[in-house]
Amino acid sequence: MTPARGGDVRLYRGWLSPERADALLASIRATATWVQERRKMYDRFVDVPREQAWFGDDRERGFTPELDAVRRELEALRGVRFSHVLLNRYRNGRDSVAWHNDHEVEHIAQPVIASLTLGATRAFDLRPKADRKKIVSIDLDHGDLIVMAGNTQTNWEHRVAKNPRIAGERINLTFRQQPA
Fold it and tell me: Model pTM?
């Protein structure tokens, strides 16, 4: 799908087979060291409502063989080089990430971000910055891949909203580029 208003978002349903997604999820559970950040909001510190882990060429923990294999496939699919991956662990429906764009890639004019979902199905929401009332919601299932490219980070925001009806864990892998 290519949203109007300057974005390039592509959805690959079942990009990983259920068996391969299960194996990758098991590998991540065995190797990731999860951290829950605290951020200052309105004169007090609060826990970020999810846990995170990093792997990559430029990170303390290098890619595991399983993550590196996925990275190589994504690089072949999109024709770009990914230097690291951020893993977000949503323990249940109370965990979330608010509306944002991935600004840490600001030194790349049109970054490519490949986002792979493992575990529980969660809604991934997009909205154009020019009209924040128009929300596009996509349920991402175990093994689904969504790739944001072009001017998506400039013109769009995305989130994973809280949903108390969800009991299962979701781990999202966002493969990212390193500015030159």
Answer: 0.93
